Records
---
Amino acid sequence: MSSNTAQVTPTAPALRTEDLARFKARLQDQARALSAQDSELRARLAAEESVTANTFVAGIEGAMAAEADDETIALLHHEQTELVATRQALERIESGDYGYCEECGDAIGVARLEVLPEAHLCVGCQDMLEHRKGR
Ligand SMILES: [Zn+2]
C-alpha cells in the first residue's frame, strides 16, 4: 500500500528485488514445464513413427513427416522456441540485464513482464520489429 510517486531514473534497476525473484521463479517453473512437455512430445513422436522421429532428429523434419506427426512437430518447435526464450531470460537475470530492452536499453516494465516474463524487448521495439518483419 505505498502511495509513493513512481520514480523513473535511467540508472535505477528495472525491477525491484522481489519482482526479480518472482519472475525468476516463474521462468524456472516455465522452463521445467517446457522441458517436461518437450520430452513428452518427443516420446509421442518416437512412439508414432520411428522414421519420422529420426527425420526430426536429423533436422530435416516436415518434408517427410506423416500428417499425424505434423501437429506434434509444430508443438515441439513452439516448445523449443519458448524454452530458448525462457532460458535466455534466466541468463539475463544472472547477468543483471533482465527487464531491459535489448534494442534500446529502456526498462521493459513490470506490467509487460507479468504477461510475458521472457520478454527481451520493450513494446515499442517489439512493434518495430514486427513491422519490419511484415514488409
Ligand atoms: Zn526498446
Note: The domain at 17-134 is CATH 1.20.120.910 (Four Helix Bundle (Hemerythrin (Met), subunit A)).
---
Amino acid sequence: MSLIRKINYNKKFNKKCFNFTTPSHSQGDFVCPDAEKILGRKFYECDYSETEGFDNLRAPDGVLKELQQNISKIYTSKSSFILTNGSTSGIVAAMLAVLQQNDEVLIARNCHVSVYNGLVLTGARPVWFLPEKDEKWDIFKSVSPEIIERHLKSNPLIKAVIITSPTYEGIFSSIPQISEITKKYGAILIVDEAHGALCNFSRDYTGYAPAIVSGADISVHSLHKTAGAPNPCALLHIAKSSKVNPQDIQDALNLITTTSPSYPLMAAVEATVEFLFSRNGKAEIRKLYDMVEDFITKVSVLENVEVYSGFCDKSKILLRVAGIPALAVAKILNEDFKIEEEFSNDNSLLFLTGIGTSKKKFEALLQALREMSAMDIDADFLCEKTAIALPSMIYTPREAYFHPSEYIDTEKAAGRICSEVILPYPPGIPLILPGEMINDENIKFIMTEKVKVAGISRSSGQEIPEKPEKFI
Ligand SMILES: Cc1ncc(COP(=O)(O)O)c(C=O)c1O
C-alpha cells in the first residue's frame, strides 16, 4: 500500500485510534486557528508519526520501504531515499557515507554550501578546483573531465569527487566522461543534481541523461525546486552499479535528520514522483519545454536580448540585455513589471521555470523584455565584475569550525583567516570558507554585499601552519 492510500484509507474509515502519541494535535483534533487559516485542516489530518502501520523512515520495513522501492524502480537506482530536509541533507549524508576524517575529496568550487557542511562533519580534506568561467555570462562552465583526470592521476588519495550538474544556472557536465575517469581511479562520484529533478523525465528536451544512469554513484534531486513539490522535498539515489552501501546512507541520514519526518511531505514526495512518471506528468513536462521553446523563439527576435544556448537545461532561462548591466535589468523588472528573477549576476539574469510555471508568467516576462528592449537606458547602470580566485586554505573546514574565533571589523579582515561561510545567497555558493585566508578582493566584495565576517585571531596564541593545505 502506498503512503497516500494508507492516509486516505485511515481518513475514509475513520481509523483514528486513541493515540497517546506525537503529534499531540491527533490528526487535526486540535488546530491553532491562525495555522488553520493558512494551512487548512487537511495538513494536520495527514500529519502522523511512526504509529501502527506508518512505518519508520529510519529503518523502513512497511509502507515507507515500499514507497522508497517504488521510487527506486522509477529512477532505476539501487536504492532511493526520501529526504524531508532537502538535498542539503542528502549531500551531507552522501559525504558521511563515503568519507572519513582526513580523506581527500575533489570538489568543484561552485558547490552548494551543504558540501561545506559535509566537510565539517566528516573532517575530510577538500581539494578544490575552479571550473572555467564563462565571462560573458558570468557563470561557471561545465566541469572539464581533463581537470578531474589530472587531479585523480596526481593524487591517489582522493577518495571521492563532488560536482554540481546541472549547476544553479542549468549548465550540464558530461557525467559519462567524468564517471569513466572516477571509475578508472576508484573514486566515488557524487553529483549534486538538486536542480535536475526533472532530468529523468526531460531527456528528450535536454539531451542530458540523469547522473546515476550515466555512471555517477550518488545523486540528489530537489523535487521542490523545479518538480512542483513543496519545500524541501528531495530524493537521494544510489546507482545500481555503485559499490556504495545503502545502509551507510541510511546510517548517515539517521545521524543528521529528524526522528520525526513530515508525513505530509513524504506524501507530497510520493504524489510528485508518481505524477512525473505518469502520462499527465509527461504531458506537463512537454508543455513546460514547449513553452520555454516558444518563449526563447519570441525573445530571440528582440534585438538586444540574448538567451544562453550552451549545453544546459533550457528550463533555466539565462538571458542578458545587451548594453544594460543585468542588475539594472533586474531592478527594472522588479520595480516596473513586478517580475522577480531567481538570480542575477553582473552579466546575466536567471529565470527558473518548472512544473507550475504558467503561460501567463512567460507572457509577462516576454512583454517586459519587449518594452525594455525599446527603452533608453541610463549608462550609470554599469557595474563592475567580481574576479574569482581560490583563496588559500590554512585550516580544513572542520579545524576552522572548532577553532576559537572573534568578530572583527570587516575592513581589518585582510590577512585573517575566515571562520564563517561568506555566502552570497542565492545561489548559496560559498565565496570564502572557514579556514581560508581573506584577501583585499574578498573585503571589497564583502563590504559591497554587507556580509559580516568572523575571523580566527592571529594573536590568539594559535600558530598558523607554515604550509597551506593542498589546493589548485
Ligand atoms: C546546487 C544546489 N545544491 C543543493 C541545494 C540544496 O537543496 P535543498 O534546498 O533541497 O536543500 C541547492 C539549493 O539552493 C542548490 O542550489
Note: The pocket of pyridoxal-5'-phosphate is lined by residues 86-88, 112, 114, 164, 168, 192, 194-195, 222, 232, 234, 427-428 (CB under 6 Å).
---
Amino acid sequence: MIAFGLGIASRNSALDIIETFYPLPAVNPDEDFARELSNLCELRFGDSGFRSLDAEGLEVFFAAARDAFQHEQESVAARLRDSERPILLCLSHGQSPPTSAPEAFLKLHLLSHRLARPHEQNLDGIFSVLHNLAWTSRGPVSLQDLPNLLLEARKQGETLSVHSVDKFPKMTDYVVPSGVRLADSARIRLGAYVGEGTTVMHEGFINFNAGTEGQAMIEGRISAGVMVGENSDLGGSSSTMGTLSGGGTEIVSVGRNCLIGANAGIGMSLADGCIVEAGLYLTAGAVVRELDGEGNLVRTCKASELSGLAHRLFRRNSLSGAIECLPRKAHVTLNEELHAHN
Ligand SMILES: CC(C)(COP(=O)(O)OP(=O)(O)OC[C@H]1O[C@@H](n2cnc3c(N)ncnc32)[C@H](O)[C@@H]1OP(=O)(O)O)[C@@H](O)C(=O)NCCC(=O)NCCS
C-alpha cells in the first residue's frame, strides 16, 4: 500500500515538526502520480518521507494532482493554499516502519479514516518517532515550550488547558468516522479503527491499530492490535489483553456476535458467538474444563486451546469455582434502539 497526504504541520520552538493533521489522506495513487509525488518529495520511488512545500511546491503538487484527484479532494487540498502553518507532503509505504512524526501521523490517520485496517501497515517503532506532547486547548505543544505558553496565556487573562500529555492525541481532533457514537472522545486514540455503527460508551477505550469491524457496543477496553468482530458487545470495564507491556506476545481478537461480560477479560482470542461470564478473566493459560451439551467432561486444557471453538460460554462454575467452557445457550443481541441513531 502506498499512501500520501497533504498536511498542516505543527512545529516546536526549535522548528522540529512535532505533529501533522491530514484533512484528506489517500491510498494507492496510480503509478504515474505516485512517481510525481516521489519526485516532489525528492525521494526515490518506493521510499517513504516528507517535504515541506512552499507556494511553488504546492502549485507543482496541484498540477500533478489535477487528473488524479476527485473534485472533493481538489477543493479540500486547495484550501491549504492560504494556511498560516507549514504545509507538507508525506508519502508512506505500508510495509516500511514510520521514520518520522509526519509519517507516523499519516499512518494513524489512515487507520481512523478506515483507509487501512489494523495490522495492514508496519507500525514498528512508532513510539520512538512520535513526540510526547501536551495536547492543549490551542493544539499540540512541546513540553519544553509549555511553561512559557501557560504563562503567556495567563498574562492575557486566559487559561491554556492541557487535556493530556501523551504521544497519541484523541482521534476526534483529527477524524470523526461516519456512523459512530463516542460518549467520551478522550478515550479513543488517533489510529483507532472504529467500524460503522459502533457505539463506545464512557468506560470504553480504543487504542491505535485496533478497533471494531462494524456494529458493536464497546463499554470495555480494546487494546492495541485487538480487532472486535461485528455485532459484538464488550461489557462495562471488560478488558482485552494487550501486548504493548506486561509480557504477552499473542495478539487477541474477538469474533462476531460475542459478549464479554462486565469486568471480564480475555488473554486469548474468541471465535464467533462466544460469551465470557461477567467478572471472569480468561487468561491464555487458565485451566478450563471443556464440557459437552449434556455437561459431560470432554477434556481439561488451557483456555488458548479453545480459541477456535465457536458458540461457547465460558464461566466459573458457581459451586466448584472451576472455569468451564460449554456450548452456549444464552442469546446475545445488540440493543437495536441503542444503535439506531449512530
Ligand atoms: C454467564 C451468563 C451469560 C449466563 O447467562 P445465562 O445462561 O442466561 O444464565 P442463566 O442465569 O439463565 O442460567 C442458565 C443455567 O446455567 C446455570 N448457570 C449460569 N451461570 C452459572 C455458573 N456461573 N455456574 C454454574 N451454573 C451457572 C444457571 O443456574 C442455569 O441453570 P438451569 O438451566 O439449571 O436453570 C451471565 O451470567 C453473564 O455473565 N452475562 C454477562 C452480562 C453482561 O455482563 N453484560 C454486559 C453489561 S455491561
Note: Residues 219, 235-236, 261-262, 275, 277-278, 313, 315-318, 329-330 surround coenzyme A (CB under 6 Å).
